[in-house]
Structures are given as C-alpha cells and as structure tokens.
Amino acid sequence: MSGWVVTTALALLLAACGQQAEEPTGMDRAADPQVAETESPDGVKIRYEERGNGRTALVLVHCWACNRSFWKSQFDAFQDQYRVVAMDLGGHGESGSNRRLWRIAALAEDVKAVADQLQLDRIILVGHSMGGPVSLEAARLMPGRVLGVVAVDTLHDADFEYPPGQLEQMVTAFETDFHGTMSGVFQGMSGQYLTPDLKDFIVTESLNTRPDAAVALLRNFDQLDLPEMFRQAGVPIRAINAAPGPSTLPTDIEGNRQLADFDAVLMEQVGHFLQLEQPEAFNQLLRGYVDALNQSAAQD
Fold first, then answer.
1. How do the pLDDT tens digits run along the chain, 300 residues long?
2. What DSSP line would sit under 42-67, residue for residue?
3. What angle do CA 88, 29, 19 make, to 5 degrees?
4. I want to staple 38 with a disulfide (CB 3.0 to 4.6 A). Which of 19, 86, 117, 272 is the partner?
C-alpha cells in the first residue's frame, strides 16, 4: 500500500514528543452556515457542510487526524462553479465516535452517507492523504455517480510496502503517548513552508481526533490492498502531490498507470499539506483536474 500519511512522518516519530499547541488566532474555521448531519450505516453521526449550487459536486475528504476545516480555501475558491461538500469523517472533528470497528471501509461509508443524504449523482472526490484510499473505496461504493478521484499528496505508489515492524512501532508510540506523539508528528509533517499559525492550527486540530479511532485506523493501513482499490474504483485517478524531498515521497506515475487511468502533477516547495501551504497554486492545479473530469463526463 502507499505510504501516504505514515511514512512521511516515520523519520520524525521517534523524536516526537511535543506539547499541545494553543488555539491559533490566524486560522479560523470556515464559516459554516450550511452545516448539517447525517448517519452512517453503523449509526455514527457525520457532520458535513456544503456551499454552492453547481450540477457537479466536489466532495472533499480530509486526511487522518484532520477534519473538514482543512479545506477552507477550497470552499472559497470552488463554490462559484461547483457544489462543494466536506464532512468530518467518523472519529474526527465534530462527527460521532461510537464506531465498533474503525476501518477505511467504514470511512468510505461515511462519505457515501453524505452523498446519499444530498442526493449527489455527479461527484468528484478529492482526498488528502488518508482521504485518497477512502475516496477510492467510496468510488467503488457509488458506481456511476463518481466522475473521478483527485488525490492530494497520496496514492504515490500502489505497490509500496512498509518495512517489517515499522508501522507497529508507530502504533505503539501513539498508544503510549497519543498527545505528545501526535503533536510532534504533525509539527514535523507541516514542514518549512507553513507559517507558525498554520502549524499550530494543524497540530491543534489533529489533537481533537479520538485516540482509539486514530490508532485503529493506523493498524488498518497495512491491511489495505491498494492495487486492488485502484482497479476497483472504476474511475480516473488524478494526483496533486508534493515533489519528492526530505519529508515527501516520490510518485510512481508509470507504475500506477498499470492499474488505472492515472496521472499526477507535482508541486515544488511544499510539504504534506499542499492545500494550506500554497492554496492559490494548489487551487489552480485542482481546478484544472476538476474541470477536465467534469467536461469529460459531460461529453460521454
């Protein structure tokens, strides 16, 4: 499977033992006048918000230990042309946490529950980090309704495998000191391109994730058959990934193309949180992919 969220931070993990950040003043949540709630099949309440009235919906799927507020700049940029929807996946943000089994498949059911509630039938899924595999599974669950998946610093290499014991080491660190490990990992993953306020925002929001959900999802990462998820998604997959660097991964474009209709563009001078670090440049690339997927579907 791809080393989207965990591998990026593994080198930082053993030294990570920071303190919980204060609530930032420079990064408020997006205003949410159209916030609502639905229920996933297993009874977990899922909070979501929407903007815009376009025929095609952009459904924004956040990363592990994040929430819908990480898409603030995308709401503002795309609501003029598209119906923009973002939810807090179960165990994250303002959504419920009464789930018995925390799995990527259950998070994909959260996405489908929101799409069903809003009766969306022309969907482009945009998934950051863990949101990439979640989006692939959600596309499989909604055949004929999803026009494509846009991965954001994720789905780098479908054939990636964790070295033996590496993922378990990270799980143990979170079980031993959830807050300290989370703070250190996300401070490191935020990289050199974020302002101090944005770094504090990322850390503060990550610490609001339910610990047992976060740890269980980490364990599930290594159980995914990502090549099969590529194949079964049944839609074009596009990626906006960070160019490879000290804390970012290379993207195997040709290898991924053996599994699906795949393409990728790489952003320079960004870390893992592209949509926060360079929102204008990121939105321009995202609009290119989204418009192309939307136009291609309209011609079919």
1. 344 444 444 433 333 333 333 333 334 444 445 899 999 999 999 999 999 989 999 999 999 999 999 999 999 899 999 999 999 999 999 999 999 999 999 999 999 999 999 999 999 999 999 999 999 999 999 999 999 999 999 999 999 888 888 889 999 999 999 999 998 887 776 567 788 899 899 999 999 999 999 999 999 998 999 999 999 999 999 999 999 987 788 999 999 999 999 999 999 999 899 999 999 999 999 999 999 999 988 776
2. TS-EEEEEEE---SSEEEEE--TT--
3. 85
4. 117
The strand pair at 35-39 and 45-51 is best described as: antiparallel
Q: Are 214 and 91 in contact (CB under 8 A)?
A: yes
Residue with tokens 């009874």: 43
Output the CA torsion sign for 59, 63, 64, 69: negative
Spell out the residues 6+ positions from residue 160 whose beta carbon is closer than 8 angstroms to its own. 1, 2, 3, 7, 226
Position 29: which residue type? R
The answer to whether the CB of 127 falls within 8 A of the CB of 151 is: yes
What's the token pair of residue 119? 């009766």
Q: Which residue has the tokens 């939307």?
A: 294
Q: Which one is the CATH code of 6-299: 3.10.20.30, 3.40.50.12160, 3.20.20.80, 3.40.50.1820?
A: 3.40.50.1820
The CA distance from 263 to 239, in Å, is 6
